[in-house]
Specification:
Shape: elongated
Structural class: mainly alpha
Largest sheet: none
Length: 44
């Protein structure tokens, strides 16, 4: 079985996409501070 078909992979992938979409809408001054910290948290 390929891991792309597992439910946990699909949920995490959706979380990553959502975080990137949210961060891309941040104002410029927050995108590279708060946005970067948020992105780093999900990849721990």
């Amino acid at each position: 079985m390929r891991y792309e078909h597992t439910q946990i992979f699909q949920k995490i992938y959706q979380l990553v996409l959502t975080v990137y979409k949210v961060v891309s809408n941040f104002k410029r001054e927050y995108k590279y501070s708060l946005g970067e910290k948020l992105q780093n948290l999900i990849f721990l």
